[in-house]
Amino acid sequence: MVLRVRTLTPAEHLAFLESRESASFLQTPAWGEVKREWRAESVGWVDAGDEGEKVIGAGLVLYRRLPRMRRSLAYLPEGPVIDWTDGDLSRWLTPLIEHVGAQGAFGIRMGPPVITRRWSAATVKAALAEEGSAPRTLGEVTPDHSDHTALAVADQLRSLGWRPPAENASGFAAGQPRYVFQLPLEDRDEKAVLAGMNQLWRRNIKKATKAGVEVSRGTADDLPAFHQLYVETARRDHFTPRPLAYFVTMFRALNAENPERAKLYLAHHEGELAAATIGVQVGTHAWYSYGASSTAKRDVRPSNALQWEMIRDALSSGARVYDLRGITDTMDESDSHFGLLQFKLGTGGEAAEYLGEWDLPISRLLYSAFDLYMRRRG
C-alpha cells in the first residue's frame, strides 16, 4: 500500500476523526482557528485502492513563519493521527515531509500520541515515602507498565533522522507536556472512582458541598467572569495569562464542531465566583484544560468540587479517560512544580509519559536559525 498526503477539507478531517475512538483536541480542524498566529492546514494520508481513495490518517499542521523569511516550521501538536504501531513508519512520514516541504517548511515538529510508561498513584506515593534515597524524578521510579511498541517507535524515528526530545524537556517551557496525569474511567462508576481517591480529596469534596459550593455549567457569556478569575490566578501563581479573546475564540471554534466539545464550569459560594474550569472532550477522551480560583475562597475547596463535577460529566458521556494534563517529572518536594503532582495524585489516577516532541530539520541552516530565534525569545 503506497500512501500519499494531500490537503483535506475541514469536513473531511473531522469525518476521519469521528470515525476513531478519540484524538487530541489539538489535532481537530477547529484548533487551527484557535491558533491564529499560525497558518493551519488539515492533511490526510490517502490510499487509492480498488474502491477509490480512502483517508486512513490525518493531522493538523500549523505553520510558523521564520521572521523576514518565506519559510515555515511545520508543527503537529500531539499528532498526527496515524497508525503508530506500523513497523515501517517511513511509509507515513516520508509523504508528510514531501508535502510540508512543498508548502515551504524548513523543518517539522510533531508530538506522537504514544505513551511509553505509566506509574500508578500507589507506586508514586510509595516512591515518595522512601527514606534517604527517594527518587528525584519519575524516570528513576520503576513504572507499572512500559510499552515496548512505543519504545520501538522512538527507535524508528531516530533511524529516520528525527531528533528526540531534549533530556531536560520535563517541564512546560516549550510545546506540549511530555508527562501528564490521567484518571482511567473505563468500566468504573462514580462510586468506584470516588473510592479510588485519597482521603483528602474525598474530604474536600464533602467540605465543598457542606460549605454550600454550587457548581454549574457556564456559557460563552460567562467567559469574562472566568477570565477575571484566571488573571487573578496568574498573578498568584506567576504565569502569563492568555487574553480573553483567546478563550472566546477557543470556545466558539471547538463548539462549532461539536456543541459538547468545550465546557465551562463555574463554582459559586455565597453568590461569588470561587473557581472556574474549562474542559474539552473528543470521543472517549476528556481533558481538564484551564482552571482559575479565588484566593479568598480556597478554604471552601471549590476546585475539588469542580474537578469532581467534570469527572462525573466525563463518566456520563462515555469517556474512558479523564486527563488532568501536564505535570513535570519532579519528585522533589522543594520544587515549585511538585504541588501540581501532589494535587493530581489525590485522584487515584496514574502518571504517564509520552514520547515527547520530535524534530526533523528539512533545511538544517534555516532550522538552526529558527531554533536560535526561539531560544532568544526565551
Automatic annotation (TrEMBL):
GO molecular function, one term: aminoacyltransferase activity
InterPro entries linked to this entry: Acyl_CoA_acyltransferase (IPR016181), FEMABX (IPR003447), PG_Glycine_Bridge_Synth (IPR050644)
Entry keyword annotation includes Hydrolase: no
GO terms of biological process kind: cell wall organization; peptidoglycan biosynthetic process; regulation of cell shape
Keywords from the named record: Acyltransferase, Cell shape, Cell wall biogenesis/degradation, Peptidoglycan synthesis, Transferase
Transmembrane stretches, start-end: none
Annotated SUPFAM superfamilies: Acyl-CoA N-acyltransferases (Nat)
Record carries keyword Acyltransferase: yes
Short name of one Pfam family: FemAB
Family: Belongs to the FemABX family.
Protein name: Lipid II:glycine glycyltransferase (Peptidoglycan interpeptide bridge formation enzyme)
